[in-house]
Amino acid sequence: MTATDHADTDTSTATADATATVDLLVAVYRETLGTAGLDRDSDFYEVGGDSLTAFQITGRIQEALGVEVPVSLVFAYPTPADLASVVDSDFVRV
């Protein structure tokens, strides 16, 4: 395997992990907010999110991924895709 092949494999794995995290967060947002049409770019505020649902979302993320995500991040990164990028880059899963 060449260095380029190894880099491609690392990129593919990172992309798959990121996609899995986004998919998981979309499912968590849908379940918590009761909005079936929600997608990766749906804004937390625009679909009816509030502080209570933000706490519920972070609790479900912790259950699913084993990471403690501060509620403030749900407000700072209001779409599942945005929050997933932070979760994937800033937290170590246990």
From TrEMBL:
Example of a GO cellular component annotation carried by this entry: cytoplasm
GO MF, any single term: phosphopantetheine binding
Keywords attached to this entry: Phosphopantetheine, Phosphoprotein
PROSITE patterns: CARRIER
One BP annotation, GO: antibiotic biosynthetic process
Cleavable signal peptide: none
Transmembrane stretches, start-end: none
Superkingdom in the source lineage: Bacteria
InterPro entries for the chain: ACP-like_sf, PKS_PP-bd, PP-bd_ACP
Cited Pfam families: PP-binding (PF00550)
Carrier domain sequence ranges: 16-91
Protein name per UniProt: Phosphopantetheine attachment site
